[in-house]
Specification:
By secondary structure, the chain is of the alpha/beta class. The protein has 18 helices and 24 strands. Bound molecules: fructose -6-phosphate.
C-alpha cells in the first residue's frame, strides 16, 4: 500500500538524494497518498526529517518553505494509513534517537512490543505500529553498533507484513532495508544505488534491478549492495532488467494517467499477445512451466483475484469453460482462503493481479499451494511477490499502470486469460490448431477495434458530462457482458463516488427491476447478434422491459445492430467482435464514461479518495 524509496549517492552532500527520493515518491504516490515524508543523513549532521499529512504536494510545499540541508543518503515514504489516522505525526519517517524508519505493511505484534518498550522507558508520539520499529532499531544499534545487524535482529522480532527502510545519522552513506511479505526492489546505479517498493521509484535513473526474496535484509551504499537473510547469512537476490522506460510512467500530455492508460489499451492488448507463438503460429506460453501431464490432468480451475482483476477472472471463466470444457470457479481471493475451498493437486489455481502484491490474492495463492494445487499467476508487475510464489507466471505487458483505478491492466488480464484458455484447449485436445489460430487472428484484430472505440468516444464523453449530477446508475449485461457491467459499475463508484450496481440482465425481473423509475439511467451491454441468437434477443427484451418503466437506456451495441434502436435513448457503437472476445471492446466506453464524469465533477481520477493502488494488507 505505502510507497517506499531509498537512495545513497556520493560521499559529498548534495541536493540529489532529496531530489531522487521526491521524484520516486511522485511515481509511487499511486500506492497511497494519506501523507508523505523524508529523512536525510549527511556526515557530521543530525538526522533531517520532514513529513506532512495529505498528498506529496503538501510535503513539497513544506520543503520549499523550510528547506532541508544537503545529504548523502535519503529515505522517503508515501502512506496509505492503517494504524493511526492520516496526520503529520503519524506520517513516516518515525524517529528514535538517531534512527529514522519508514514502513509498508502492518506489524501485528506492535501492541506487545510497544508495552515492552514503554516499560523500558520509550516515549511514543504517534498512533502507528511503525514507531515500535524505530525504537527497537535505535536500541539494537546502540547495543550492536551496526545498522545492518540491528535490522536483522529487529526484523526477526516482527510479526505481520513489512518492508522497512532505515537510516542512522552516524552512518551517512548507508540505507538498510528488510522485507517480509511486502515488496522491495533494488535499483543498481553507477556510484549510487536505490531501493523502491517497485521499479517506478528509480526507473528514471536505472533499469538494472534486483528482486529481493522473502525475509531478506539489504544494505546499500554508493558502491555496494549486500543481501542477507534475517539470521545474517549471505543470501541471493535475483537480477533483472526493467523492460519499460521512464516515459511509460509519465502522463504524456494527457489530462490524467487514467486518460493516458485508456489510450494505452490497444498497445497493452497487442503487447500481451506478442511473442506467445512459435514460428508455426502455435501457442507456446514458455512461461507456463507446469508439466504438460499435470495440465492435462487438471479437472478444475479456480481463479482467485480481487476487484477488477476478479471481473477479468469472470470473463476468463466463460472463455475457458467454452474452449476447454474444464469447470472454472471464480472466487474473490479474500473469501477463498477462509472457507476451506475444495482444491487439490488436480486443481489449477489462476491468480490474477495487476500489482502482484495484493495481500488477499497472495494469501489465497499460499493456501492453494498448501493444498497441493498448482498456481499460475497472471500479473503485470515484474519483481512482485505473487509470481515469485507461484508455479508459473504469464506476464501481462500492459506497462506501468499508475492511476489507482485499473483500466489497461484489465484488458491485458483478459487477453492473457484467453491465451491460457486457448493453450489448454489445444494441449488437452479440445480444439484443433487451426481453430486456435483463427481465434488468435481475431484477437490480433482487437487492438485496432479498441482504437476505434477510443476514436469515437466523443458522444460517451458528452453524455458523461451531462450526467455529472446523477445520483445512481445501473449496468446490465448477460454472459460475458455481465462482468463488463460489474466493471462499469465499479469504475463509476470508485472514480465518481456515484452509487452504481452491475446486474446480470436476466436477474432484473427477480428484484432489481423495482429500482427502475422514470429517468433512471441504465447502461446495457448487448451481446453480438451474430453470436447466440437467444442471448441477443433476451437482452433486447430486457431493454424493452426497463424502457417501458421509464428507464433512460444507454446501450452498448455492435455496429449494425439495428434491433436495439427502437429501445435505446443512446447507443454507443463498438466494432463487430466475436462474442467471447467482446469484453475487450465493450468495457472501453464504460471506462471512458466514468473517467469523463468524474473529471466533470472536478474529482481526481488518478487518486480517488480512500483508495490505494496496491492493497498489501488483508
Ligand atoms: C479497481 C481496482 C481494484 C484492483 C484490485 C486488485 O479499479 O483497481 O479493484 O483490481 O485491488 O488489484 P491487483 O490487480 O493489483 O491485485
Amino acid at each position: 500500500m505505502c510507497g517506499i524509496v531509498g537512495y545513497v549517492g556520493s560521499a559529498t552532500p548534495s541536493g540529489r538524494p532529496l531530489e531522487v527520493v521526491i521524484e520516486g515518491l511522485r511515481r509511487l504516490e499511486y500506492r497511497g497518498y494519506d501523507s508523505a515524508g523524508v529523512a536525510l543523513v549527511a556526515p557530521g549532521e543530525p538526522l533531517a526529517v520532514a513529513k506532512k499529512a495529505g498528498k506529496l504536494a503538501n510535503l513539497v510545499e513544506e520543503l520549499d518553505a523550510r528547506p532541508l540541508p544537503a545529504a548523502t543518503a535519503a529515505i522517503g515514504h508515501t502512506r496509505w494509513a492503517t494504524h493511526g489516522g492520516p496526520t503529520d505525526t503519524n506520517a513516516h519517517p518515525h524517529v528514535s534517537g538517531k534512527v529514522a524508519v519508514i514502513h509498508n505493511g502492518i506489524v501485528e505484534n506492535f501492541a506487545e512490543l510497544r508495552d515492552e518498550l514503554a516499560a523500558a522507558g520509550a516515549v511514543f508520539v504517534s498512533q502507528t505500529d511503525t514507531e515500535v520499529v524505530a525504537h527497537l532499531l535505535a536500541r539494537a544499534y546502540d547495543e550492536l553498533g551496526d545498522l545492518t545487524t540491528a535490522m536483522q535482529q529487529v526484523a526477526g522480532r516482527l510479526d505481520g507484513t513489512f518492508t522497512l527502510l532505515a537510516v542512522h545519522a552516524d552512518r551517512p552513506g548507508l540505507v538498510v532495508g528488510a522485507r517480509h511479505d511486502s515488496p522491495l526492489v533494488v535499483g543498481l546505479g553507477q556510484g549510487e544505488n536505490f531501493l523502491g517498493s517497485d521499479v517506478a521509484a528509480f526507473i528514471a535513473h536505472t533499469r538494472d534491478a534486483m528482486e529481493l526474496g522473502q525475509d531478506q535484509v539489504v544494505s546499500i551504499t554508493a558502491d555496494e549492495v549486500a543481501v542477507t537473510d534475517f539470521a545474517g547469512r549471505p543470501a541471493q537476490a535475483k537480477r533483472f532488467v526493467v523492460d519499460w522506460d521512464a516515459r511509460a510512467a509519465e502522463k504524456g500530455g494527457f489530462r490524467s494517467f487514467m486518460d493516458k492508460e485508456i489510450h494505452d489499451e490497444p498497445q497493452a492488448v497487442a503487447d500481451t499477445l506478442l511473442g506467445r507463438t512459435d514460428r508455426a503460429g502455435r501457442l507456446t506460453l514458455d512461461e507456463v512451466r507446469i508439466d504438460e501431464s499435470v495440465l492435462r490432468a487438471v479437472d478444475k480451475i479456480v481463479v482467485v483475484a480481487c476487484g477488477t482483476a476478479a471481473y477479468a477472472g469472470h470473463v476468463a471463466k466463460y472463455a475457458i469453460e467454452h474452449w476447454c470444457r474444464i469447470p472454472v470457479e471464480v472466487e474473490l481471493a479474500h473469501e477463498f482462503r477462509y472457507r476451506d475451498p475444495v482444491v487439490d493437486e488436480r486443481t489449477l489455481v489462476v491468480a490474477i493481479s495487476q500489482s502482484g502484491e495484493t495481500m488477499d490474492t497472495l494469501m489465497a495463492v499460499r493456501h492453494a499451494r498448501e493444498q497441493g494445487s498448482r498456481v499460475l499467476a497472471i500479473v503485470n508487475t515484474h519483481g512482485s511477490t505473487i509470481p515469485r510464489e507461484s508455479d508459473a507466471v504469464l506476464y501481462t505487458h500492459a506497462g506501468p499502470e499508475v492511476a489507482v483505478a485499473s483500466t489497461k491492466a484489465f484488458l491485458a488480464q483478459i487477453t492473457a486469460a484467453y491465451l491460457l484458455g486457448l493453450y489448454l484447449a489445444e494441449l488437452r485436445g479440445n480444439m484443433f490448431h487451426d481453430e486456435v489460430a483463427a481465434i488468435l487472428d481475431e484477437l490480433r484484430a482487437v487492438p485496432g477495434k479498441i482504437q476505434q472505440v477510443i476514436d469515437r468516444s466523443g458522444r460517451v464523453q458528452e453524455v458523461a458530462r451531462w450526467m455529472a449530477d446523477t445520483p445512481t446508475v445501473l449496468f446490465l449485461g448477460r454472459h460475458v457482458g455481465y462482468p463488463v457491467a460489474m466493471e462499469g459499475a465499479l469504475k463509476l463508484k470508485e472514480l465518481a463516488y456515484i452509487h452504481a450496481e452491475g446486474f446480470p440482465a436476466g436477474e432484473l425481473k427477480h428484484g432489481p427491476i423495482a429500482l427502475i423509475e422514470p429517468g433512471q439511467p441504465v447502461f446495457v451491454v448487448v451481446p453480438s447478434p451474430r453470436g447466440r441468437d437467444a442471448l441477443h434477443s433476451k437482452v433486447v427484451s430486457n431493454i424493452q422491459e426497463i424502457r417501458a418503466r421509464g428507464a433512460r437506456t444507454l446501450v452498448i451495441a455492435e455496429d449494425g445492430d439495428e434491433a436495439v434502436l427502437p429501445y435505446a435513448d443512446e447507443v454507443f457503437w463498438v466494432p463487430q467482435t466475436p462474442t467471447l472476445l467482446a469484453p475487450l471492446v465493450t468495457v472501453v466506453p464504460l471506462q471512458i464514461f466514468a473517467c469523463e464524469l468524474a473529471t466533470a465533477k472536478g474529482l481526481d481520477v488518478d487518486q480517488p479518495r480512500n483508495l490505494a493502488k496496491s492493497v498489501t494488507v488483508e
